[in-house]
Amino acid sequence: MTMMLKITKVGYETEHLQIDIPIGEQKTIKVNMQPQAKEISFQSDPPSSHVYVFREKSREVYDGVKTKKIKNIKLKHWKHLGVTPFTYYTDPSDPLKHNDQLKFSRPEYQDKIDRFKSGINHYHMVLDPK
């Protein structure tokens, strides 16, 4: 029997593990979990660049005009983390997760996108002029 396990613990990155267990047998599994970063430093060339993380949340909204029902709508936005150079202290209610999109932005420069990677505590981005 093949099973997909989701292992979670507060303060640690979520792990997914696929295992095979023959029917009727027991299996002990050991998982080395990576702690979530508590402090992440951001720098850029030039300095004073804004750093954002992409967020998509769902919200229930009453549609009183067309369907007269409650429906879920997706809200997509860029959450501002700070202005470089800065140290970001992880928000436990909205932690950065592996593969989150990070955007470095500054007027008169091209935006740059990076991905948050578990275990990386320092990001440095070089922005190109427009």
List the helices and strands and how they pair.
Elements: E1 2-7, E2 15-20, E3 39-45, E4 50-63, E5 69-83, E6 86-89, E7 101-105, E8 112-115, E9 122-126
Describe the structure.
- It is built from no helices and 9 strands.
- It has 130 residues and is mostly beta strands.
- A 4-stranded antiparallel β-sheet has the order 5-4-7-8, with no helix packed on it. The protein has a 3-stranded mixed β-sheet with strand order 6-3-9, with no helix packed on it.
- The radius of gyration is 20 Å and the shape is flat.
- The model has no long low-confidence stretch (mean pLDDT 89).
Alpha plus pi helix count? 0
Percent of sequence in beta strands: over 45%
Strand order of the largest sheet: 5-4-7-8
Output the CATH topology of the largest domain. Immunoglobulin-like
Structural classification: mainly beta
**Global Rg:** 20 Å
* Overall average residue pLDDT: 89
| Highest CATH level, the class of the largest domain | Mainly Beta
Number of domains: 2
* Biggest pleated sheet: 4 strands, antiparallel
Distance between the termini: 55 Å
Number of strands: 9
Q: Which residues sit in consecutive blocks of at least 5 with pLDDT less than 50? A: none
Return the string of H and E elements: EEEEEEEEE
General form: flat
Q: Supply the CATH architecture of the largest domain.
A: Sandwich
The helical percent reads under 10%
